[in-house]
Design brief:
Elements (H helix, E strand, L loop, with lengths): L3 H6 L2 H10 L21 E5 L6 H10 L4 E3 L3 H9 L5 E2 L10 E7 L10 H7 L6 E11 L8 H20 L5 E7 L8 H8 L9 E5 L18 E5 L4 H12 L3 E6 L4 H10 L3 E4 L7 H13 L2 E6 L14 H24 L3 E10 L3 H4 L5 H23 L3 E7 L5 H4 L3 H9 L9 H12 L10 E4 L8
Parallel strand pairs: 1-2, 1-4, 2-3, 4-5, 5-6, 6-7, 8-9, 8-11, 9-10, 11-12, 12-13, 13-14
Helix pairs in contact: 3-4, 8-16, 10-11, 11-13
The structure holds nicotinamide-adenine-dinucleotide.
The site of nicotinamide-adenine-dinucleotide (NAD) has 27 residues, from helix 8 and helix 14.
Length: 467
């Protein structure tokens, strides 16, 4: 749907009026186009003394052919040199006119609250030099993996820094935190690539936790899902269609699923991407068996399962009939549990398999008129967290994205007041696109995302509502 306000304030007259009235001016966000470099501009790398991620960051940036700058300190320059990166030098005392597309700071060396000053020291002279759609990224150690209380305290503090910095970023720039468990340094690449690239256009103020995972050599970063089979429920339109197209772009054979009344729409989508269709209502008691039978017979199993199908049936609780509650809960949550159980029972999830769920910001913040929806979407988060160890035992992962305001048929049908509020009340002052949700799902779905398990990442432009 067209965002008329955005179009208006991005012309000279509208921009002038918006500036003088102090109105938000959403800027067009950089989004990924096939074949584009990982990041379109220089990356400034820094580290607190004692950081342990320098070699991983250097190797990743070298592999991505990124243009890298750093200060003169050895802590950063020696791993860059060892990885073959010919980094430029930036001197904060003689700042020049540099701008960076990415600022990456390894904060793993921070072990006390006093040392948090290192954040100020790196970002104070640089945050205003972040280019439009730039990326501010902090890397830390999960507080739960720190043995000393002061170490854990300082690492937990990073979250507040990143969330506040995200709200200060301008012109479509974003901020993210990634906690990397000790021993999981080799698992950083898919997440650092996602957060640096325009694929994470509408993700801001988020944190990802990377833990142990398996070695997955030889990733083709352009087509990481080559040779993989991905099931996407609710694939005939909206976010599901974008997920199907994005996973196909990344190399997967997509099996789209949707309800019988949308069979024709589903067929159009899957045939346009060389995929195949399963026509089923996921609440049908026979659906899990039907899905498993088809995946087994045609593909011998499945690599990626995306639980996207979902509905709203809004009504305040006092006026909500039982059907609105029960049908929604069955579609949005219980059917996903039954499908997961069937896939596990029949051992159809291939090695290094991925389950990715679509929750919602309503499941985090709650929403008036949506007790049923918020319950179901919070339940999806519960399912991800409780099933993460179960899938880990099978060498697989389960994660979720929680979209905020995404421009779809669902949000176009909202009354104008809540619609405009939903669009503007986030750090980027605009709604996201279905492809933004799809890119986050593709990140979790990648075989390289082996250390990500039990994560919930919001795709909401850092909505002011909720955590
Ligand atoms: N649009 C947003 O702003 C937004 C925000 C947060 C979360 N979400 C979630 O994203 C997902 C997709 O939302 P959307 O906006 O694309 O909605 P949509 O209504 O356009 O698409 C939902 C799809 O799910 C399918 N579906 C519904 N019930 C089904 C069933 N019983 N069996 C099989 N398929 C079924 C529908 O037919 C449809 O194709 C949903 O889970 C939704 O809750 C959307």
């Amino acid at each position: 749907m067209t965002d008329t306000y955005s179009a208006l304030v991005n012309n000279p007259v509208g921009g002038f009026v918006a500036k003088n009235l102090g109105l938000p001016k959403p800027v067009p966000l950089d989004r990924y186009v096939e074949g584009a470099p990982l990041i379109d501009g220089a990356v400034l790398v820094g580290s607190a003394p004692g950081g342990r991620l320098g070699p991983s960051v250097a190797t990743i940036l070298a592999g991505a052919d990124a243009h890298v700058d750093s200060r003169l300190d050895d802590e950063v320059r020696s791993p860059l040199g060892a990885a073959g990166v010919d980094a430029g030098v930036w001197n904060p005392e003689a700042p020049g006119s540099q701008r960076w597309k990415g600022l990456v700071f390894d904060a793993t060396g921070i072990t006390s609250s006093e040392q948090l000053r290192e954040l100020w020291s790196f970002f104070h002279p640089t945050i205003r030099r972040l280019a439009p759609s730039g990326r501010l990224i902090v890397l830390g150690t999960p507080p739960e993996d720190c043995t000393e209380p002061r170490h854990a305290t300082a690492q937990r503090a990073l979250e507040g820094f990143v969330r506040a910095a995200g709200k200060e970023c301008r012109y479509g720039a974003t901020a993210q935190l990634t906690y990397v468990a000790p021993g999981a340094e080799e698992r950083l690449e898919s997440t650092l690539r996602f957060f640096l690239s325009p694929r994470s256009a509408y993700v801001c103020g988020q944190l990802a936790r990377i833990g142990a995972g398996k070695d997955v050599p030889g990733i083709d970063w352009e087509r990481p899902l080559h040779g993989k089979v991905a099931l996407v429920t609710g694939a005939s339109r909206g976010i599901g269609e974008a997920i199907a197209r994005t996973l196909e772009r990344d190399g997967a054979h997509v099996v789209g699923l949707d309800v019988p009344p949308l069979a024709d729409d589903l067929e159009k989508v899957v045939s346009s991407i060389g995929g195949s269709a399963i026509v089923a209502d996921i609440t049908d008691p026979e659906a899990p068996a039907q899905i498993c039978d088809e995946l087994q017979a045609k593909h011998g199993g499945v690599d990626v399962v995306v639980h996207n199908a979902g509905v709203t049936r809004d009504k305040t609780l006092g006026g909500m009939d039982e059907e609105r509650w029960s049908l929604l809960m069955d579609i949005n949550l219980s059917s996903e549990e039954r499908i997961n159980d069937a896939l596990i029972e029949r051992d159809l999830l291939n090695d290094n398999g991925r389950v990715v769920c679509v929750s919602s910001m309503s499941g985090i913040a709650g929403n008036a008129g949506q007790t049923n929806y918020s319950t179901s979407k919070a339940g999806v988060i519960g399912m991800v967290q409780s099933m993460a160890p179960v899938f880990a035992e099978r060498g697989a992962t389960i994660n979720a994205v929680a979209p905020g305001f995404i421009e779809t048929q669902m949000t176009a049908a909202m009354p104008i007041g809540p619609r405009e509020a939903g669009r503007r009340m986030n750090s980027l002052s605009q709604g996201g696109l279905p492809v933004d949700v799809a890119e986050a799902i593709a990140w979790f779905a990648s075989p390289a995302s082996t250390g990500l398990n039990g994560n919930v990442v919001r795709v909401c432009g850092q909505s002011l509502i909720g955590a």
